[in-house]
Amino acid sequence: MSPERLTELAQQRKTLLCVGLDPAPEAFPPHHQWHISWIGAYLREVIQASLPYVIGFKFNSAFYEQWGVEGWRLLEALRAEIPTDYLAILDGKRGDIAHTNGAYARAVFETLGFDAVTVHPYMGWESLRPFYEVAGKWVFVLLRTTEAAAWQQQVWPTILREKPIGTPATIGWVWGAHHGDALQALRQVDSRSWLLMPGLGAQGAEITPDLPVYPALITLSRSILRDPTTLPLYQARTAAFLP
């Protein structure tokens, strides 16, 4: 999916919402059944309920990997439930030497068929080449994370300035909503790249429409998994950031 197409979908659906499908016990309604078949059925219901209100879905791979083969199968099955006109993101925070990243990229983009992946940049941009050389895909690079160590405040401008230009894949940024006060500094350097922005809802961050958020995928996981009836509310909240 191109950035232009994602922009069109955001405008058509009047939303920037991205639902996180992360099966942790605390993310589900009370009295849920904690076994993988029930979890799969419930997440399928959430996907179907979300379709009118979102432009993307994010899967944190750790919550599937913890079940081994069964979790991997569930991840594959749920990925297949996402229609083509939604951005499907694997939140794996991958990052290693380029040779190893090549295997990660094949797993994410070819084997699992995801549109996008999250990666960390702390081994340098050259190590990320196997991800951002895959045409038509998206790579969201960790820039300011929700539970960031203090040193990220000094490092992120360097990561931003050294971003490769003209890559076959689309490069965006993971930017926690808790760092809304620094968005102006980011947008002064890069006003066009899409953000993947966690932190609202259960994590307690707040962002206001006067902040330069757009373009961004505003991600909520636990708040929606606990109560999918909140989808229209969060759609409206994210719509306030559309131009």
Specify the CATH homologous superfamily. Aldolase class I
Low-confidence stretches: none
Shape: globular
CATH architecture: Alpha-Beta Barrel
Strand order in space, largest sheet: 1-2-3-4-5-6-7-8
The helix-and-strand class reads: alpha/beta
Percent helix: 25-40%
- Mean pLDDT across the residues is 93
Q: What is the straight-line distance between the termini?
A: 21 Å
Describe the largest sheet: 8 strands, parallel, barrel
At the third CATH level, what is the topology name? Answer: TIM Barrel
Radius of gyration based on Cα positions: 17 Å
The total count of strands amounts to 8
Strand content: 15-25%
Count of helical regions: 10
N-to-C order of helices and strands:
HEHEHHEHEHEHEHEEHH
Q: Can you identify the CATH class?
A: Alpha Beta
Whole-number tally of structural domains? 1
